[in-house]
Amino acid sequence: GTSGAPGDVTGQTSATGVSLGDFTQILVNNTDEVQWVDYRVHPYASGTGAGADCDYGVNLDTTFRIYVNPTPRIEVNVAPSNTICNNDIVTFGITNPNQPIHGAWQYILEVEYGPNIQGNDIGGVYTDIPPFVQDSLVNTDTAYSYAVYRFSPWIVDLDGDSCAVGETIIDTILVNPTPAIRVRAQDSILCNGEPAIIHIYNPNRFANGDWEYNLTVTPDPGGMITGFDPGGLGRTDTIINDPLINHDTIAHKVEYMFSPVRTPAPDVCAGGKDTTIVIWVNPTPEVRVTVSDLVLCDGDPLSIQARNPNDPIRGVWDGVLEIHIDPGISGITDAP
Question: For labeling, which of 26, 69, 170, 202 is most exposed (least CB within 10 Å)?
Fold first, then answer.
């Protein structure tokens, strides 16, 4: 007899008139759980001198049961997905589909970390089966890389013999890099009205999704700077050209903060390092002049005082004094 439904275990045969020696059966378990086959060996003597078979009944029968373990299998569920962000944790839910069995179900996990990938080295033989295993993956590059996990189950029976390794499950996890951004300003100190030109570069290569950046633009308070980009989310443009106008007499700045991200939602990879560019805009150069008197008597002293209203600025304030003299006027000295 056999366990289970017809066809659950195959390869068993019955025979009569079998001579002494080995009796070979190739038993196949077509299910995921242990099956058994019962055998009965019934001895008798045939072809005796009297020409008759001698059968002594069932009292001399030998019966035994053969247990046939299934081909070892394993079921693996990956969370959150087969593509993750840098520094994410990947979880493998482990299920043993071979229940019940005659012995102990185990598996070996082999892990291959791709270029620039670091993990927790979770490979090894798992005999005390947890419901899941986890690995924290770090991508140290700007391009995506991978980690490969091979789950190979086997069964050790109660006699200590091992069934051959069964179906191997292979899961490949793609690890996107941390979003990065490269930013270069043509000049960080501008004259009034000059354009602020900033070039933006994408150094990343993602397994999927899109590279974008969020731009936050912060001018000095007071409303003295105009012409700057309003900023925004989900930017992809590679150049900013802002004609910055300084309405004050002192230097003012505009800060451009670039925050790279990988989209779309819900698989957003953030955490990239922000890059801030500071653009200073000097005012239009001015001078304040005070004259002691506009009408003098002959020989009276004239005092001219020049004052710099552009303080502070990014650089050095300077100017040129030109003196135009009518004929007959003397006593002019150069400015200090």
Answer: 26
